Automatic annotation (TrEMBL):
Pfam families: FAD_binding_3. The keyword GTP-binding does not apply. GO terms for molecular function: monooxygenase activity. The keyword Oxidoreductase applies. Its cofactor is FAD. It comes from the Bacteria. This is FAD-dependent monooxygenase.
Amino acid sequence: MVGCDGTRSVVRQAAGIDFPGQDTTLTGWLADVELDDPPATPLAATGPAGSFLAAPIGDGVHRLAGLSTATMHHGTGEPLTLEEVREQTRTLLGRDLGIRNPRWLSRYGNATRQVARYRAGRVLVAGDAAHMFFPAGGPAGSPDSTTRSPPTPHPVHTR
Ligand SMILES: Cc1cc2nc3c(=O)[nH]c(=O)nc-3n(C[C@H](O)[C@H](O)[C@H](O)COP(=O)(O)OP(=O)(O)OC[C@H]3O[C@@H](n4cnc5c(N)ncnc54)[C@H](O)[C@@H]3O)c2cc1C
């Protein structure tokens, strides 16, 4: 059995696999929105106030992501408003891109954890069930298949 059920993995907990690491100390924000004034290409901006990304994700929606010195100590549970996204985008990018019609607004934290072991008997954990990283630090999910496959060279036999 493979538990691929995310950072709060019920499978990991039921298997008794420890998930040591550090709690969140800073947060970024993410907004999937429509734009009246979309950039022609995906863009990234970095400055003293923080960093900002915008990229199309299909269906007329752009994903905006920011990491701002002004809001980085907000908790992950603190609601993100559309007005804050507009204000942050103006601060970090210099214009607000005509942000409207939000599909998804959230904050994400920099908690960092990794399972003490990937396998307990016939149970394996993978993906975010096995690790937690701050996405602004680099790709978190995609390297799993290459970096984690060598330690499990033996087939797991089931009946
Ligand atoms: C803002 C942001 C940007 C990111 N950018 C990148 C990037 O550019 N590149 C990259 O590689 N990674 C990136 N990541 C990380 C990446 O999104 C995750 O590592 C990846 O989505 C993890 O996939 P997963 O399938 O392991 O877990 P999840 O996507 O969390 O999926 C777990 C699934 O299990 C289901 N589930 C949970 N509990 C149960 C249950 N009890 N019963 C049944 N189903 C259950 C959930 O509904 C969900 O469908 C980013 C993350 C964030 C927050």
